[in-house]
Amino acid sequence: MFVYNLFMINICSNDDIFKKLEILSDAAKYDVACTSSGVDRKGKGGMLGNSVASGICHTFSGDGRCISLLKILMTNHCIFDCKYCINRKNNDIHRACFTPREICELTVEFYKRNYIEGLFLSSGIINSPNFTMERICETLILLRSEYMFNGYVHVKAIPGASDELLLQAGSLADRMSVNIEFPSESSLKKYAPNKSFNLISDPMKKIKDSIEMNRLSTGKSIKLPRSNINKYLPGSIFNDVAQIEGDNILKSSLITKQADIRPFVPSGQSTQMIIGTGDDSDYTILMTAQNLYKSFDLKRVFYSAYIPINEDSSLPNPDTPVPLLREHRLYQADWLIRFYGFNAQELLSKDNPDFNTYMDPKCNWAVKHLEFFPVEVQTADMASLLRVPGIGPKAARRIVTSRRYSLLDFNSIAKMGVVLKRAQYFLTCNGKMMYKTLLDEKYITNRLIGLNGNENRQYSTEKQLSLFDDFGLK
Questions:
Q1: Which GO terms label this protein's molecular function in UniProt (predicted)?
Q2: 3-class SS at 337?
Q3: How far is CA 135 from CA 97, 101, 179, 320, 391, in A?
Q4: Which has fewest Cβ within 10 Å: 76, 177, 303, 433?
Q5: Using H for helix, E for strand and C for coil, what is the string for 17-76?
Q6: What is the pLDDT of residues 94-118, one digit of tens each?
Q7: Which residue ranges form the domains of the chain, and what is each CATH number?
Q8: Under a CB-based contact definition with an 8 Å cutoff, are residues 39 and 266 in contact?
């Protein structure tokens, strides 16, 4: 097996590094899990780079993805045969792989030229999950200790890799992610026969527990089950010596002073689900996402509209439109769950399992629950205001603060950021609506869909959405 590894690396070593970069950066574009870093770390003397909490992804490409991270695969060789993946082992594509040092050189040289501010590193699985994860760990050790790179690093955890390797990677990376791929076990078995929910959820749980232990060790308040406190301490990042046993390349120990130990995955973990491949409904997807947030304390669940790239009888035809609008609605619903106090069960149900793609999820919920409306601006609490389409958290706070001192009208709340073209159907100011409105689901739905006509036309073409455009989220 080890001879096979050396052979695979050698056949790639003659490729020009820029050809490798072209192949492996293109192969990484189907993973959408790039977003703000969530980490604020200033530069240090003798070290290279920094990380900005407001968002390392300052710039976006035309398809909406971050371009300030060097986003590559270590290799597009893979022993798995996931039907949806361009890098599946049975695909006839040009293969390549980077050495750890090549990745470090590229990262630092790109950083010095101000092309990037960090690294997003994923990989196909070459030979075994442990072998692949060892190469990722070697890259991170070189990058942090020899090249002194202090910028943002996001790495993919390889399902099936050992606990020690996950802990080693997490002690050097800012964010880790394990892609769950599908919201149901049946879809995962159908499209990724080499994977299982247990194979994916186990590393997610280990990362979560290690983040909690790190917070506990630094004196931060956290509710941690007693049974988990000592679970992963032997050989973990909390020892003075971080070492991966059995790795011929990583025999030298990474020794640090206790005061200098990096926080474990300070930007948390994330995951990704593919949209439009299987038969899973929006309700199933949202319920899974909600459970992931609760169970694994995820920072983000990303939704990736499936682009038909492989021919398989179980997959959509190559000429099937990419479900970008559906992807966008799921992002909006995800935002409502995380920041607006909604539950997945409120937005959708088994009887009504999919969103009306012509209307944003908040409006979709409001027209089906007209018994809660209209809401009176002068007396409604924060939770009720946040349920009104067109009112976001900032506008709601401004309303609650301003109404203590004066009576509000529609002009004043519009200046506070309320989007009246949506909110007017669900609000009253001092007992009066902006216009005479029939509180009828069909009537308001038709009016709102008419408002969103330009939006719907915009998404009729194959264009990746920006995660930060509003498009009626408020």
A1: catalytic activity; iron-sulfur cluster binding; metal ion binding
A2: helix
A3: 11, 10, 19, 37, 48
A4: 433
A5: HHHHHHHHHHHCCCCCCCCCCCCCECCCCCCECCECCCCCCCCECCCCCECCEEEEECEC
A6: 899 999 999 999 899 888 988 788 8
A7: 2-320 (3.20.20), 353-458 (no CATH)
A8: yes
